[in-house]
Structures are given as structure tokens and as C-alpha cells.
Prior knowledge:
Blueprint: H1 2-32, E1 39-41, H2 47-55, H3 73-83, E2 93-100, E3 106-113, E4 121-126, H4 136-147, E5 151-156, H5 178-190, E6 195-201, H6 203-214, E7 222-228, H7 234-241, H8 248-265, H9 267-276, H10 283-287, H11 292-304, H12 310-316, E8 330-335, H13 347-355, E9 359-364, H14 385-404
Helix pairs in contact: 2-14
Amino acid sequence: FSNKKEILLKVMLVFICVFVIIIIIIQILWNAKTSPKTEIYHSGESNIIKKIIDGCSIIHESYVPIHIWGKSGHLQSIFFSAIGRFGKTPKYESHRYKLGGDDGSLVSYDLFTTKVHKNSVTIVVVPGICNHSENKYIKVFAQHMNQHGYKVAVLNHTGALKNVPLTRPRIFTYGYTDDLDLVVSDLIVKNPGEKLIGIGFSLGANVLMKYLGEKPERQLNFLFAASLCQGYNLPECITVMSEWDNLRRLYYFGLTRNMLKVISYHKDKFESHSIKNNIPLDWKRISSAKALHELDHHFTAKVYGDISDMAAFYRSNSSSTYMKNIFIPTLVLNAKDDPLIPESLFKYPRSLCDTNPNVVFVVTPYGGHLGFFEGGYIIPNRLSWLDRMLLEFTNVALDVVIKNDVLEPKEVVFEC
């Protein structure tokens, strides 16, 4: 009798466990199919922005992430960081151009081309930190835009490509814009009369927005721009990334290790430069840095030689200092569950919308840091919601801007 009782209890326990698991799965699937609406902020004073928003249906819909794990900003961000995009890397045609900078540095960009170039525009992409044209998410996005008739030029952050040597002891920084300016100038020379569209991912968005705002006349070469998942203000970014809240300090450590990996590609160059110029570099401290500001103290400030005030350096490299000077139509996007960029930093684009009628700020409830995976339950589609949204936004904005003419800089009072 006791054996039967034990068996019955085990069966009941298994039944209860299965029942609980089924309830959890049902709850996950039910919640996965319901998502809060995307939030859209703009002043309402620009007819061009109104027309772009009205025509871009995807930003009015709720972004529905991949069902099982898509509502975790951490998983979205980790998968993006690890693999970029799911599925096979698409076939593409590209050519790498190498340019010489005024300081003797070697700057490169890749041009992803299409046989059906239906638009007389080129999309200029500025990737995220330590990223370049060979990252999978960049290839997927470029090929997606190629399929719809757009050429895509991708800036390779100086030093990020292991197979492109440094000719000067310098790698990219948070807001250094000379490399981007060199690429833009080359595109203009090679394609006279063509206009550009600027798209920046994460740190690349900071570089792009700073580039457009610090010298507003540069915007005359652009029809519009998009800033994706950036943090806007470097001093505040460093403060929040140093906190353990939402595990940001762990991500900060990961970003630092990525930077150290880039530095290691060119260690011989930096060592010879430091010896030649009597610059004391403590490689033990450099290699053991656990935060970017530590790395900047032991490496960046010494190698560049002209950085005596790191606080001023961070401020001058922040796009928030220059965004007020942007007059072309601009999309700014962040996700609420981005573990790297907390909502406290959203005050910068919200404030920008209050003073600049040509900016629209879109906030999604989910997506993590540049993830935005969608489709299916476990394995998402190769194309993300972000890829689809950028194509629709580009198509609509291009049509609206061409029909209504781009705003001229004389309509805006610039501040330095």
C-alpha cells in the first residue's frame, strides 16, 4: 500500500509540475503577443516631420519581440553583441576604399553596392564601438538596403579592423569626427550631385550627431539622419555605466575588454611611439583596466598627448553638446529596456524635440541595445525590426524631403 501511495504522490507531483510549466508557457506566449505601444515625441511644428511620421506606419505599431526571450533587454543585448543577427550572412558586393588623413593616418570605408541603384543617394553608416563593415549586423543591414536600391558606405572605425594597419599611433575615440569627414568628402568627390543619408549605431550615432552639429554646414550634404541607441552625454554615460544597477557595470567591463582587444591589434605601433616620444605607458595597468575611463587615464590621455582635462575631453566628445545645431530631419531611437542606456539619458532627445521641430524621438518598450529581434518563438528572423523600420523610414523620409525640399541652415540660429 505504501508503494502505491508513493507512486501516486510522484504522479501527482509530475502532474503539478507539468501543469505549472504549461501555465508559465501560456503566460509567456500571451504576454509575448501583447506589447505596449511605441512612444513618439516631436514638437508638432514641422510639416516635414509630421508627413514622415504619418507615412511611417511601422513606428505606430507595437514592436513585438521574439516570443520566448524577446522581452528581456539583457538577452536582446547579449545576443546582439555575440552574433549581431541570426541566420546566414547574406551575399553582398562591396569594395574597400583606403584614404590618407591629414595626420598621416589610414582611414577606410566599405561601399556596399547594388545593381539596381534606384536612388541618387548613398547611406553613410557609422557603426557601434569597435565595429566595422565586417560585423554581421552591418552586413545584414547593408544587404537589406541594397536589395531596395540603396548604396551603403560604412565607416570602419580606425584600428577596429585587424587587417588594416595603423599608419599613425591613433585609434578611434568617442567623438572624433575627422575620419567620418574624410569618408563623406570622398563620397562627394566620387559622386558629385548625390546626397547622403546618415545612420549611426550606438557610439556611431554619437559620432554622427556630433559631426552634423559641430559644423552645421556639413548637413547641406545630407537629406536626413538617424541616431540609434546612443547615450548622448559621455560624462553621464560613464557615471551610470559605473553603477551595478541593471548590471551596467558588467557591460561596461565588456566594452572595456573590446577596446583592449582593438589596442592589442596595434600594440607594437603604440609601444614604438611611446619609446620614441618618451611616453610612459604602463601596459600592466592598461591591460588590467576594468572601465573605459580607467583605460582613458592610462592609455588615451597619454598616447594622444594633448588631453590634460578628461572631463572637458568627454564633454567635447558628447553629441549632446552639438545636437541643438542639427536642422535636417532626424530620427532618434532608444529602447526602454536597453541595459546600457537608462531612461535618465532620454532627457537629451526629449529636450531636443522641445526646441527642434525637425527631430522625432521614438521610444520602444523592448529591443535592448540594438537587438530588436522579432519573429518566431526561439530563433528570430535574420532581419530585425530595426532593419525593417530603417528601410521604411528611409523610403518615406526620402520621398517627403525630396518633395518638400530640405530645410536650409538660414532658418536655424546656430550655437557653438
